[in-house]
Structures are given as structure tokens and as C-alpha cells.
């Protein structure tokens, strides 16, 4: 876990970790609330016995929204955590690249 100050120096702020997505946290939370609403909509569709294909269409839209969110988060991780590890050098960069590679592999399996 990489930490940065408000100015982006790579240090800790008040002992709490600040992640790469920190500066867009409100946007991410808003986006996740929309996705949550889509999932609730799916529950409603099933509860109302809506036609299967219509439900699958909404499942696809929800899946795409989650995938898009995951890709944005991954990009922020690469720009922040992996880039910070590269600046620091040593074995940390290898660990961050391996971590990102595993995350990408998980995303591709979905």
C-alpha cells in the first residue's frame, strides 16, 4: 500500500494511507451508488417476473459498469502505486507489478 500526502509526495498523512483513487473518491462513490441502484433494479426485475432476456440485458449493463469502474481503479493504481514504487526502486516495483498483473488476470477471468 502506497501513501501520499495531499501534495502527492508519497508520504503518509496523519498515519493514514492515501490511495491513488483518493482524489476522485467522491466520484467513485457516486459511480458505485449508481451501480448499486442497477443491482437493486435487477432484484426488482426478478421479483416482478420480468422476461429473462430483459433481465440479462440489465445484467450485462451492470457488468459493464463494474468492469469500467475496475479499469479506472486499475489505471489509478498503475499511475499512483506502481509509479511510486518505480521511483523508490528496489524490489517494491517488482511486487507492485506482480500485484497489478494478478489484478488484471482476475479481471480478464470475469
Provide an overview of this structure.
Helices cover 71% and strands 0% of the residues. It contains three helices and no strands. The protein is elongated, with a radius of gyration of 18 Å.
What's this model, at a glance?
With 110 residues, the chain is mainly α.
User: Radius of gyration over alpha carbons?
Assistant: 18 Å
Strand percentage = under 5%
Tally of extended strands?
Answer: 0
Contiguous low-pLDDT stretches (5 residues minimum) are 1-15
Structural class: mainly alpha
Q: How far is the N terminus from the C terminus?
A: 25 Å
Helix content: over 70%
Question: How would a textbook summarize the main sheet?
Answer: none
Could you name the key traits of this structure?
single chain; 110 residues; mainly alpha; 3 helices; elongated; disordered N terminus
Amino acid at each position: 500500500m502506497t501513501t501520499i500526502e495531499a501534495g502527492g509526495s508519497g508520504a503518509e498523512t496523519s498515519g493514514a494511507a492515501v490511495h491513488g483513487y483518493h482524489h476522485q473518491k467522491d466520484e467513485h462513490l457516486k459511480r458505485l451508488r449508481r451501480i448499486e441502484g442497477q443491482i437493486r433494479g435487477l432484484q426488482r426485475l426478478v421479483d416482478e417476473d420480468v422476461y429473462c432476456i430483459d433481465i440479462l440485458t440489465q445484467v450485462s449493463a451492470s457488468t459493464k459498469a463494474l468492469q469500467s469502474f475496475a479499469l479506472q481503479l486499475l489505471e489509478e493504481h498503475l499511475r499512483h502505486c506502481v509509479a511510486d514504487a518505480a521511483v523508490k526502486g528496489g524490489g517494491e516495483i517488482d511486487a507492485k507489478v506482480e500485484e497489478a498483473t494478478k489484478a488484471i488476470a482476475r479481471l480478464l477471468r470475469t
